[in-house]
Design brief:
Blueprint (H helix, E strand, L loop, with lengths): L2 H15 L1 H4 L2 H31 L6 H15 L2 H9 L2 H4 L2 H24 L5 E11 L2 E9 L6 E9 L5 E8 L2 E2 H15 L4 H16 L1
Antiparallel strand pairs: 1-2, 2-3, 3-4, 4-5
Helix pairs in contact: 3-4, 3-7, 4-7, 5-7, 5-8, 7-9, 8-9
Length: 214
């Protein structure tokens, strides 16, 4: 073997054996975390812009806004996970029929409630501040709603990567108050007042939705 060929083989061997060791697993882990953080931030930023644009569009009627907001929520929120968490210990006691009806009503409840709140914004802007990891599957994206009058509103978003590898919003924290935990406490109170029966909550949700959509 000539000296030139020996050098070529030596360099190739070094590349295949030594060089990969120079790129430690932590490098790929850090790169993956940065990518996940960036996509979580983009998810929240895009949702905020689309929601405000949609709900502040004076050319659309209430039904059109509700339909558009439904699509945004279905796309970016893990509503089944949130609904189950909010029902808490009562989920195990509910029948299959109750669970199915509750999940459908819970989504409509969230859409009608937050559609109205976001639609009332006028001149506000959502500003993304930063994102930080909560664990290997979740990020907290911090943001503020900047208002023409009054102090900014602190708004944080919990974004979780599900088993399919998709990032979904699982909670909104307004001024350090978790909306998922707030709804959980409210729903638990309603169920308790109805003798621990989930049907009492289902009836309450139906009334709320009917009033909001009328």
């Amino acid at each position: 073997m000539t000296l030139r060929k020996l050098l070529v083989v030596s360099v190739a061997a070094f590349t295949l054996t030594v060089a990969p060791a120079l790129v430690s697993p932590s490098f790929f882990s850090a790169h993956a975390e940065a990518s996940s953080e960036k996509s979580a931030t983009a998810l929240v930023e895009n949702l905020g812009k689309e929601a405000v644009t949609l709900l502040s569009n004076e050319k659309l009627d209430a039904d059109a806004k509700r339909a558009g907001f439904d699509k945004l929520v279905s796309r970016d929120f893990d509503m089944n996970l949130i609904g189950r968490f909010v029902l808490g210990k009562h989920w195990r006691k509910a029948s299959s029929e109750q669970k199915s009806e509750y999940q459908e009503l819970f989504k409509r409840y969230i859409i009608t409630t937050y559609q109205k709140r976001i639609g009332e914004y006028s001149g506000e802007n959502l500003t993304i501040l930063k994102a930080k990891p909560l664990n290997k599957n979740e990020y907290l994206v911090k943001s503020q709603i900047i208002r023409p009058k009054g102090p900014p509103i602190k708004l944080d978003w919990r974004v979780r990567t599900n088993k399919s590898g998709e990032q979904k919003i699982v909670d909104i924290v307004v001024e350090n108050v978790s909306m998922a935990l707030t709804h959980r406490d409210e729903f638990s109170s309603v169920i308790s007042k109805n003798g621990g029966n989930v049907d009492g909550l289902i009836s309450t949700l139906k009334k709320h939705i009917a009033a909001a959509e009328s």
